[in-house]
Amino acid sequence: VVEHTCSITSLMLGETLPSITKDMDTYTYRLPIGVCAGIAPFNFPAMIPLWMFPMGMVCGNTYLLKPSERVPGCAMMLGKLLQDAGAPDGTLNIIHGQHDAVNFICDHPAIKAISFVGSNQAGEYIYERGSKNGKRVQSNM
């Protein structure tokens, strides 16, 4: 996924479909939505975050990552690698915690999208709470 994100710029160009009917053209724009967040599980502490934040960031968004409280070190190492690679400060942010951190992500008005991987119980909760707050929620349970 990380390798794919390195080549995604050509996919982000959008489309132009001229003359789809008389006097009608179609234009597609792909624009960043703002702040995206990811909530990752304990059993894949590197793989799942690497499926989340690179894609969100390369599409022009900033990212807030909440790793599992059981294995927070891996996310911190990934953040350090990204920082060492030259990513601007504030483009990837990491928040630690359990229920309060999840509720913060679901409720904060600046966060526009949430990606979650984990249990059914948590996924259903995050989907419901995030959706009620107008967020795009991708919940992989």
UniProtKB/TrEMBL annotation:
Aldehyde dehydrogenase domain residues: 6-140
Q: Which Pfam families match?
A: Aldedh
Its UniProt entry gives the catalysed reaction(s) as: 3-oxopropanoate + NAD(+) + CoA + H2O = hydrogencarbonate + acetyl-CoA + NADH + H(+); 2-methyl-3-oxopropanoate + NAD(+) + CoA + H2O = propanoyl-CoA + hydrogencarbonate + NADH + H(+)
**MF annotations from Gene Ontology:** methylmalonate-semialdehyde dehydrogenase (acylating, NAD) activity
Which InterPro entries is this protein grouped with?
Ald_DH/histidinol_DH (IPR016161), Ald_DH_N (IPR016162), Aldehyde_DH_dom (IPR015590), MeMal-semiAld_DH (IPR010061)
What family is it from?
Answer: Belongs to the aldehyde dehydrogenase family.
Q: What is this protein called?
A: Aldehyde dehydrogenase domain-containing protein
Which source organism? Cirrhinus mrigala
